[in-house]
Design a protein that fits this description.
By secondary structure, the protein is α+β, with helices and mostly antiparallel strands. It has 2 domains: 7-38 and 81-416, Creatine Kinase, Chain A, domain 2 (2-Layer Sandwich), CATH 3.30.590; 417-493, no CATH class. It has helices at residues 25-35, 71-77, 104-124, 163-181, 248-266, 279-288, 306-322, 330-346, 356-371, 378-386, 396-402, 412-418, 428-438, 472-480, 485-493, and strands spanning 7-12, 14-18, 45-46, 55-56, 60-61, 78-80, 86-90, 93-97, 134-138, 151-158, 185-186, 197-198, 206-211, 218-222, 234-239, 295-297, 303-305, 442-446, 449-452, 460-463. The strands form 7 sheets. The protein has a 6-stranded antiparallel beta sheet. Strand 4 and strand 5 (60-61) form a beta hairpin. The longest helix has 21 residues, at 104-124.
């Protein structure tokens, strides 16, 4: 039986400073991350010793050297937050990795909490920038100068499932799921064929099927084998093919459907051969086909549209769910997956309150009609960008949300609480609670460990190899009777 699909996301944000002729993105990112004040985490190291980004899921170690920053740089670039998240500088972008969660609804809560944390940071930089300059952040995926940055999804999987099987059964799903998961984009990039509007922001940037790299010759399926958990039992599928979504509904559906398909693969229930003849070409073609009628050639000789490929996965999922005890979020995901595919077949505009690419397209078309513009207008490109603006009074998605024109999945008070509080049903609870209770004694943190080094004692590392342990149910009593980190370590050993 498939293991529970614990999940999380890592969102890289576009960043620029208005009126800064000498814009240094790395320096500005460091300023942004450090502008977010949440004591006592400012002095805590990120534990790079526990990471191995060169491990490849195909069974080998890639060439190269693991980069480990010195202590000063480590502290400047990383914050581990009391909600169990990591907020840090990744190359030339600020990145927010939400804490591990067990279901797609909690994922929405914590990803949106990340948006607010990044926006709070932006506001705090106002006093640090020269007069006349303003830092701007966008939850999008390209800078229109040929550079793309990602939204990476992560899913816990059973290591016994062969990676070859995952690739074969997941490739057609990833190519086709952008019909509901795309964030929408005006125009094309990266030498792709010209178009007025496309479904997804990232699709033009994928150049190979399977590989380890995430920045050069990006693969549809990434092979990073860094489980952040017991390596003998678990695999973390690192998904780089998706867009950064604004719509809560799109995020929820994307995560839920993908987690369900992965469970099907583990249980051998993804039985149909939907292998595409040319996935790299197909992912671009599907993104450029807003009419959703393009047929893709399968290796078997069949020809199916992306919508038909998704229906095949849905049919397999419905049969899979009929005779298994699955998580309680599964029925709603199955129901809405089917509703969305039906609406896309009838008229995608029926989803103008739910799916990012449709919401944005309708908004832009209304604007063009009022102003007498076309898709090549600079104002249209600016509207596209402003949809993703993180400023709540300027971002067009947020304005639509405030007007009640988009469908919500979670409540504002849940998002506000998640800015400070971790989820209660994964090890993120233990991590976040340790930071809240014993922050001055925490030396280093990683997803699967936390180290204490107070009072001159030797550093004590506590491993958290089981992602579903460390929940409130597991550790609340232990935390309550441990007044400091030394007592915690002692009580865990007794």
């Amino acid at each position: 039986m498939a293991i529970p699909k614990m999940m999380g996301t890592e969102v890289e944000f576009g960043i620029t400073v208005r009126n800064d002729r000498e814009f240094d993105p790395i320096a500005i990112c460091v300023m942004l991350v450090n502008a977010y004040r949440e004591e006592p985490g400012a002095r805590i190291l990120w534990d790079y010793d526990q990471e191995n980004p060169l491990a490849d899921a195909r069974g080998f170690q890639a060439d190269g050297e693991k980069y480990t920053p010195n202590q000063q740089e480590n502290i400047a670039r990383n914050k581990t937050l009391t909600n169990g998240a990591r907020y840090y500088v990744d190359h030339a972008h600020p990145e927010y990795s939400c804490p591990e969660v067990t279901n797609p609804r909690d994922l929405v809560v914590h990803e949106r909490a990340g948006e607010r944390i990044v926006e709070l940071s932006r506001r705090a930089t106002r006093a640090l920038l020269p007069e006349g300059m303003e830092l701007l952040l966008h939850k999008n995926n390209s800078d229109r100068k040929g550079n793309s940055y990602g939204c990476h999804e992560n899913y816990l999987m059973d290591r016994r499932t062969s990676f070859k099987q995952i690739v074969e059964q997941l490739m057609p799903f990833f190519v086709s799921r952008q019909i509901y998961s795309g964030a929408g984009k005006v125009g094309s990039e990266n030498r792709a064929n010209p178009c007025d509007y496309q479904l997804a922001q990232r699709s033009d940037f994928f150049e190979t099927e399977v590989a380890l790299d995430t920045m050069v010759k990006r693969p549809i399926i990434n092979t990073r084998d860094e489980p952040h958990a017991d390596r003998e039992k678990y695999r973390r599928l690192h998904v780089i093919v998706g867009d950064s979504n604004m719509s809560e509904y799109t995020i929820w559906l994307r995560q839920g459907v993908t987690a369900l398909v992965l469970a099907m693969i583990e249980d051998g229930a993804a039985s149909r051969d939907l292998s595409l003849r040319d996935p790299v070409r197909a992912i671009r073609e599907v993104s450029h086909d807003t009419a959703l009628g393009l047929e893709l050639e399968l290796i078997s000789g069949r020809k199916l549209s992306a919508l038909q490929v998704q229906r095949e996965y849905l049919e397999m999922a419905l049969r899979y769910a009929a005779d298994r005890l699955l998580p309680d979020w599964t029925p709603a995901i199955l129901e809405h997956w089917g509703q969305v595919l039906d609406a896309l077949a009838r008229d995608p505009y029926e989803l103008a309150d739910r799916l990012d690419w449709v919401i944005k397209k309708v908004m832009i078309e209304r604007f063009m009609e009022r102003k007498g513009l076309n898709w090549q207008s600079p104002q249209v490109a600016m509207l596209d960008l402003q949809y993703h603006d993180l400023r709540p009074d300027k971002g067009l998605y947020f304005l639509l949300e405030q007007q009640g024109q988009v469908r919500r999945v979670v409540r504002d008070e849940e998002i506000t609480r998640a800015i400070m509080e971790p989820p209660t049903d994964t090890r993120a609870y233990f991590r976040g609670q340790c930071l809240q209770r014993y922050g001055d004694e925490v030396f280093g943190v990683n997803w699967d460990s936390i180290s204490f080094g107070a009072g001159g004692d030797a550093v004590k590392r506590i491993l958290m190899a089981e992602p579903l342990k460390g929940s409130k149910a597991h550790v609340q009593e232990l935390l309550e009777r441990s007044k400091n980190a030394s007592e915690l370590v002692r009580n865990m050993s007794s």
